[in-house]
Design brief:
mainly alpha, 21 helices, RasGEF domain family member 1C, RASGEF_cat_dom, about 425 residues, guanine-nucleotide releasing factor, guanyl-nucleotide exchange factor activity, Ras-like_GEF
């Protein structure tokens, strides 16, 4: 079914990467950071960590800037590459430039490196801004009225809008275009969006937030969830739209083949969206239509995405796709697009199931290392460039084709196959 960004409190999943010992055994014996020349750091208060990790004029005297300069350069490089949106505020850019002016005079090579870092940062910020503009345009074009399709149904006139099979009748081609859209969405999601979506301000931390609340956005993450929901409804709309049973069965078989191709590619998010759309009540109630369709492959795909055992079958398939990605020579075999809603739930419950602090008040390193591992794995997958050629007509249709609302789907479903019980008859009457 269509998804939301944050799972409801009553929905329980056990994340695949969630270690129960993280929640129940808040031990201080889990080494995480190796302190050069000393014992490993397993836990510490927030103030102590800041003192240990952040250089100051006292901690790193001017005479030792040459020694610590490369480490500062590495920190700035990784920070700007991983969290470029941290530097959208003028204040942060000013602090960044201040650091440059402090360490660059010590070595001419520093100037060149830092200038390149700043140039790359500006390019990333420009790309992020462009991506957000594209999201706004896509959302605007996708908000279409469904009245034309409803009128077409009520008057029994030919559909005004083209249907998917008239745009693309090859399942593999459509699966490729869906993969392109998925990777395009993923490319805009930064790790900071996971942090801003789930990690609330620590009550034990009395310091002021580094960034204004207005800058804490999850725009790209939310846009990706909206895309999943749109694909669900698009699939359901395409199935319910044809007036003839044979045509509806043909559309069902087509999307089953598309889902299978998505599975083979490693595009699990589109796969689940298609299955969810086909399992929506207005579609699943079309018993005569399903009776005409060849559905053996559909039940196999449903089994792969079965939620039983905390999505055990899916997680097994995901691990297989991840392993294939690591060893593949072809870019087409490196694609891994996880079922995003489940990934969100995994991260959410890992964050909610483990305290940020140990009983002694120290930061819970093991929790944040596991969070970083899961988000880091996702960041690796999202960097994959789509190896498939784009088809603009198909992409345009996927983004802009009008879709039924839930009521519209029920109305179309009842028009296709009459209500079978009193509840359906009452609903049909109300909708008409």
């Amino acid at each position: 079914m269509p998804q939301t960004v944050c799972p409801a409190a009553g929905t329980m999943f056990t994340p695949s990467g969630f270690n129960p010992h993280l929640a129940s055994t808040c031990s201080e014996a889990d080494p995480v950071i190796e302190d050069e020349g000393g014992p490993p750091i397993t836990s510490a208060s927030l103030d102590t960590l800041i003192q240990h990790l952040v250089p100051t004029t006292d901690y790193y005297p001017e005479a030792k800037v040459r020694k610590f300069g490369p480490k500062i350069l590495q920190l700035l490089t990784e920070w700007t590459e991983t969290f470029p949106t941290d530097f959208r505020e003028e204040k942060m850019v000013g602090l960044f430039k201040d650091i440059i002016h402090r360490i660059a005079p010590c070595d001419e090579a520093y100037w060149k490196t830092l200038s390149q870092v700043l140039q790359t940062l500006n390019q990333k910020l420009a790309a992020i801004a462009q991506g957000e503009e594209c999201i706004v345009k896509v959302n605007a074009s996708s908000v279409s009225s469904i009245s034309d399709k409803l009128v077409a149904f009520k008057t029994k006139s030919p559909p005004i809008q083209k249907e998917m099979l008239s745009i693309c009748n090859d399942p593999y081609t459509l699966a490729q275009q869906l993969t392109y859209i998925e990777l395009e969405h993923l490319s805009h999601i930064g790790p900071e969006e996971f942090v801003q979506a789930f990690v609330q301000k620590d009550k034990l931390d009395s310091t002021q937030p580094c960034f204004s609340e207005q800058k804490k956005k999850t725009t790209n993450l939310e846009a990706y969830v909206r895309w999943f929901n749109r694909l669900c409804y698009l699939v359901a709309t395409e199935i319910c739209m044809p007036a003839k049973k044979k045509q509806r069965a043909q559309v069902i078989e087509f999307f089953i083949d598309v889902a299978r191709e998505c599975f083979n590619i490693g595009n699990f998010n589109s796969l689940m969206a298609i299955i969810s759309g086909m399992n929506m009540s207005p579609v699943s109630r079309l018993k005569k239509t399903w009776g005409k369709a060849k559905t053996a492959k559909f039940f196999i795909l449903e089994h792969q995405m079965d939620p039983t055992g905390n999505f055990y079958n899916y997680r097994t398939a995901l691990r297989g796709a991840a392993h294939r990605s690591q060893t593949a020579n072809s870019n087409r075999e490196k694609i891994v697009i996880p079922f995003f809603s489940l990934l969100i739930k995994d991260i959410y419950f890992l964050n909610e199931g483990c305290a940020n602090r140990l009983p002694n008040g120290h930061v819970h390193f093991a929790k944040f290392v596991e969070l970083a591992r899961q988000v880091g794995e996702f960041m690796t997958w999202k960097q994959m460039e789509c190896p498939f050629e784009t088809d603009r007509s198909i992409l345009h249709y996927l983004h802009t084709a009008p879709i039924f609302s839930e009521d519209g789907l029920y109305l179309a479903s009842y028009e296709s196959e009459s209500p079978e019980n009193q509840v359906e008859k009452d609903r049909w009457k109300a909708l008409r």
